[in-house]
Amino acid sequence: MKSHLKVHYFQHIAGEGFGSCYEFLKEQNAEITATEFFALPTDQPLDLEALPRVEDVDLLIIMGGTMSVNDEANFPWLKIEKRWLRRYLALGKPAIGLCLGGQLIANALGGAVSRNPEQELGWTTIRKVTNVSKECFILPEEFKVMQWHSETFEIPRGAVLLAENDVCRNQMYQIGTNVLGFQFHPEITPEVLDMFLENDDEVAIFSGHHVQQPTELRKSAKSKFIQGNQILNQAIAYVLRKTAY
User: Fold this and answer.
1) What is the pTM of this model?
2) CA 236 to CA 182: how far, in whole Å?
3) Does the domain formed by 6-242 have CATH 3.40.1000.20?
């Protein structure tokens, strides 16, 4: 990785921060900046020029959020965020999308985002898709990660499905060698999980066979977070290496 890597992240929830990848990126001498969409007024249009110049970003990381990518009426900045994403991705620059972030990339490129038949909240097992090109990002055969979503993305045209499970088929995809979109939360840390669980209103909208209770999740061993964090670090290294950053 080159020195002074310019990393920008799109943040949709106050206090969410950068999750596990912050320390990894600081070790790479990254300069980290953010656009805090949650702090923007929802009653005023957002100018595209208010976002960073795409040429000034070496790596984009798009975080999760409680809103839907389809909720442009209540969050009008979503339209501008998607426009900026299309401009950025058209240059072949590296990007990582996490949960809502993965949905935003897919949607910006024409993939539908819709309600998944079942909600997922908690630790679930993900499977690597078989018969994927050796050039694609390499995943373990099976791994456990944190889920927190009601919706699912359609794999955008030209993308490759990398991971799945029985509850939500589209768990991770790759576009070219510069974009990786996740439905799950590899960045989750014990601190971030505690912050998520403090939002009683958000937790209350989840129910079903694949939803773990907050009391159970608060007891999660620290070792449970390691594999997802490692996968995210490897994903960042992959998109940067493949795009010569």
Assistant:
1) 0.95
2) 12
3) no
Residue-averaged pLDDT of the chain? 93
Find the mean pLDDT for residues 1-8.
78
Question: Comparing C-alpha atoms, which of 40, 22, 219, 19 is closest to residue 99?
Answer: 19
Please compute, for residue 141, the number of CA atoms within 13 A of its CA located in the half-sphere on the CB side.
0
Q: For the chain, how are helix, strand and coil distributed in percent, rounded to 5?
A: 30, 25, 45
**Of 158, 138, 100, 165, whose CA–CA distance to 237 is shortest?**
138
Backbone angles phi, psi at 173, to 5 degrees: -140, 165
Q: Where are the domains of the chain?
A: 6-242
Tokens of 245: 């950053």
% of the chain exceeding 70 in pLDDT: 98
Q: Tell me the CA distances in angstroms from 116 to 67, 119, 164, 166, 171, one per residue in order.
A: 15, 7, 13, 12, 12
β-pairing, 6-11 with 59-62? parallel
Question: If phi over 0 gives left and psi between -120 and 50 gives alpha, with beta otherwise, what is residue 208?
Answer: left
DSSP one-letter code for 180: E
Pairing state between β 172-175 and 159-164: antiparallel
DSSP 42: T
CA distance 159 to 39: 32
